[in-house]
Inverse folding.
């Protein structure tokens, strides 16, 4: 079983890079002096130097990974702030540079898409986030809200379309969008238009007769 590199250097797991470097230099100096000794003592010191070199490199790798994780969180906070400010292009540019693309990354992508009114694309990104982190309650709540919203919009559009078709069958309505139906011909049916035309002619005939004329001889 591989030894803990921090223990080999005589440190705890939360040691800083400076502590790792100081411990490594001190121990290496100690065993470098012993490695020239004769017999087993020199051989043991040489093995210890190899072990110290490996432990030192492992500790540095671990410390770099910690920095990446910390930077990842900071970048996502920056992206979130840009989204709230409405700077969606800047938020997308920053997000595109982030690795790894885990559940939180796809959640942020969903937020950008939502703010652009690309609701279906936003839903797809949330589905990816949930596939990566199925127990994340934040992802679950957000996904439920957008699914409910899309279901409501589709239902409203369907109802509006049915209403428009019924009105068109009666000859009264023409254009339907998002549940709102706009009447054709100013809201009048063909029968109403005919009645309005007759009323206008009769009115004109009366005016002509008052002035000595006759627009409609039979009346």
């Amino acid at each position: 079983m591989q030894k803990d590199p921090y223990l080999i250097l005589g440190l705890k797991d939360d040691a800083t890079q400076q502590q790792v470097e100081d411990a490594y230099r001190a121990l290496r100096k100690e065993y470098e002096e012993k490695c020239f000794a004769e017999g087993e003592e020199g051989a043991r010191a040489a093995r210890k130097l190899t072990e110290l070199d490996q432990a030192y490199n492992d500790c540095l790798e671990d410390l770099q990974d910690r920095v990446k994780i910390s930077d990842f969180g900071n970048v996502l906070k920056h992206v979130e702030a840009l989204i709230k400010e409405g700077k969606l292009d800047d938020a997308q540019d920053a997000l595109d540079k982030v690795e790894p693309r885990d559940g939180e990354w796809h959640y942020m992508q969903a937020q950008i898409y939502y703010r652009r009114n690309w609701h279906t694309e936003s839903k797809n990104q949330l589905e990816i986030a949930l596939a990566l982190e199925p127990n994340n309650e934040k992802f679950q709540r957000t996904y439920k809200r957008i699914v409910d919203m899309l279901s409501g919009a589709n239902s409203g559009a369907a109802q509006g379309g049915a209403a428009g078709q019924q009105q068109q069958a009666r000859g009264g309505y023409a254009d339907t969008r998002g549940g709102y139906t706009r009447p054709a011909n100013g809201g009048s049916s063909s029968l109403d238009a005919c009645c309005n035309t007759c009323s206008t002619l009769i009115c004109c005939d009366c005016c002509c007769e008052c002035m000595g004329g006759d627009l409609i001889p039979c009346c």
Remarks:
- The beta strands are 173-177, 180-183.
- The chain has a mean pLDDT of 77.
